[in-house]
Write a structure and sequence with these properties.
It is found in: Cell inner membrane. Its main location: membrane. It comes from Hymenobacter amundsenii. 22% of the residues lie in helices and 27% in strands. With 372 residues, the chain is α+β, with helices and mostly antiparallel strands. It folds into two domains: 7-134, TolA/TonB C-terminal domain (2-Layer Sandwich), CATH 3.30.2420.10; 147-365, no CATH class. A four-stranded antiparallel β-sheet has the order 1-8-4-5, covered by helices on one side. Strands 9-12-13 form a three-stranded antiparallel β-sheet, with no helix packed on it.
């Protein structure tokens, strides 16, 4: 489930004034002989109504299934503020859908204790009703930009076809335990004329550099024959329509998988790319969440890993994979950040349909020496 600030709450307004106490037998079986609706001193949440709203908002979770079904509306939850001040016997009086009803109940039941209601100076059980309103988040509009992605001739579908179903090099035998076709990730530049250059497969650093940076990569280099075939396929690419910035053609860098078999459905780009829901984008979010592993600090291990992931048609992150490794502990920390509470994207759209696209994101771990 995902937390959304657009799930907001309206509390019933209860005024305290001198009046005769009213008690009634509960409509459903209750642990209390009688539950009051009005007493001389009504229950008060610590900090007042504003604090009550904040406490509920902190406990509300908009169910993912409700978001996907675009469910919204108001749930009326009735409960008893017990003589101890605890919330008891919460139930939905009225609600638009079971998913939202249950989310509202869970939040109300988790509230801390109230200052209980009192009649003649004695704490008594008092009925309390509060409506909880679920409102769908507004669609996130893509940020205006003067940058245009480069375009492969025929679009992303043609690019996927070009880079998939490659024949295995002569003599190559895939590992017996392989569960998918082999693939090699290759970086390259599309220059301002659309020509592909600077082709280089993604693989561990040379041994001398790995030793200098204390790296212990867990992802081995691709088979040499596969690597050569993948680089040759990229080098043979036809000319692209180059990227444009402020109306001027510019060079751009890319990393694409070359698959020796059937490729997955993810596209390299789409008519409308996914929109990350936080300012600063994925890189700033990752930078705020990353913690340098203690073991890596002790061993002075540093370097840049590369992560592959797909943004699914519903905006969720799937198929996360390290494609360039630094060390087990650094890889694990990067994976933790992407697997734990990673925000849901506004999904890509291609040819007016939700689309799955992949990203390849570098994450750098660098130890900065402090100088006096």
């Amino acid at each position: 489930m995902s937390h959304y600030p657009s799930c907001w709450l309206l509390a019933a307004s209860l005024a305290a004034a001198p009046f005769a106490a009213q008690a009634q037998a509960p409509a459903t079986p209750s642990a209390f002989p009688a539950v009051y609706t009005h007493v001389q001193q009504m229950p008060v949440f610590p900090g007042g109504e504003v604090a009550l709203f904040e406490a509920l908002a902190a406990r509300i979770t908009y169910p993912e299934a409700a978001l996907q079904q675009k469910l919204a509306g108001q749930v009326f939850v009735k409960f008893v503020v017990a003589p101890s001040g605890a919330v008891a016997e919460a139930e939905v009086v009225k609600g638009p859908h079971p998913l939202l009803n249950e989310a509202a109940l869970v939040a109300v039941r988790a509230l801390p204790a109230f200052e209980p209601g009192r009649q003649n100076g004695q704490p008594v059980p008092v009925a309390y009703t509060i409506p909880v309103k679920f409102r769908l988040p507004a669609p996130i509009a893509p940020a205006p930009t003067a940058y245009q992605l480069p375009q492969y001739n025929g679009g992303p579908e043609a690019l996927r076809i070009y880079l998939s179903n490659q024949p295995l090099p002569a003599g190559y035998r895939p590992p017996a335990a392989a569960t998918r076709p082999p693939r090699v990730f290759v970086s390259f530049v599309v220059d301002s004329t659309g020509t592909v250059s600077q082709v280089e497969a993604v693989q561990p650093l040379p041994l001398e550099d790995r030793r200098r940076l204390r790296q212990r990569p867990t992802v081995p280099a691709p088979d040499a024959a596969l690597l050569a075939a993948a680089e040759a396929r990229i080098s043979a690419m036809p000319v692209w329509e180059p990227a444009q910035e402020q109306g001027r053609r510019v060079a751009s860098t890319h990393t694409e998988p070359v698959t020796f078999g059937t490729a997955g459905p993810a596209l390299a780009y789409a008519d409308q790319m996914p929109v990350f829901p936080q300012s600063g984008g994925e890189m700033q979010h990752t930078g705020r969440q990353i913690r340098y592993p203690a073991a890596a600090l002790r061993s002075q291990t540093q370097g840049e890993i590369a992560l592959y992931y797909e943004v699914a048609e519903d905006g969720h992150l799937e198929n996360l994979e390290v494609i360039r490794s630094v060390s087990p502990e650094i890889d694990a920390e990067a994976l933790r950040v992407f697997r734990t509470n990673f925000p849901v994207y506004q999904p890509a759209r291609h040819q007016d349909q939700p689309a799955r696209v992949f990203y390849i994101l570098p994450v750098t771990f660098r130890i900065v020496s402090s100088s006096k």
